[in-house]
Amino acid sequence: MSPRASLLLLAAAAFAAGCEPSLIALTVAPPTAVAELDSTEKDVRLSEGIALAIECTYRNSPCENATATSSDPDIVRVMPGFVDLLAPGDAYQRYPADEPRSVFIFVGGKPGDATVTLTSTDANATIDVKVLSLP
């Protein structure tokens, strides 16, 4: 294999290794409550009883076969969300969806720490989201 081909192969592998699904918050908290996603650190802060919708995307498309489970449903419940197919994602970057979006609803329970594990067949990804439920 030529040095140039080796370099291109190495660059492609490095690029693919850095690609993982992205998480985007779709909702905000009501006044006096907390519902925040730090998409870089994969952290969520939620007030007790408050829901936060989070979308999973991979290369600007919905995550494929995405699932989510909570390590402690008493602290944070997670369930699939079904978003209207005509509702735009980010009005400045995306057009109305023509395919189902991968959305999950996180609901804060009793105060404490838990982990929500999101999996997707995109890049065989598993993402652990640390969740802090606040009183």
TrEMBL record:
Keyword Signal in record: yes
Entry keywords, A to Z: Signal
Signal peptide (from-to): 1-16
Name used for this protein in its record: Lipoprotein
Native source species: Polyangium jinanense
